[in-house]
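sorry for the late reply, my laptop died twice this morning and i had to redo everyting from scratch. anyway the thing you sent over, i finally got around to it. pasting the sequence first so we're on the same page, its 91 residues, then the predicted structure underneath. double check i copied it right bc i was rushing
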Amino acid sequence: MKKFNLKGVTTATWVRTGVLVVALVNQGLTIAGKNPLPFNDAQTEQTVTFVVTAISAALAGWKNQSFTNAAQSADVQLKMVKTKKKQGDYR
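ok and here's the structure:
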């Protein structure tokens, strides 16, 4: 089993993960009949909740979420290769 390296996780990864968690909790509360957002119209609330959930899920799925040492090392190596390609040193 892979071990998580939480010290090497970037701030952007934490923010995207946090937004996704908040959206999922909000969606769960809405499904349970609770009103987590201060909207009077239920249809508006459901629309806003769906949009937040969809955006956070898309961002979390699109970006590379590097929680393990191996994934973080691969990110560093990828940056090095991209830098060398820009400089014309990589073939």
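The helical segments are 11-31, 42-62, 69-87.
thats about all i looked at so far, will dig more tmrw
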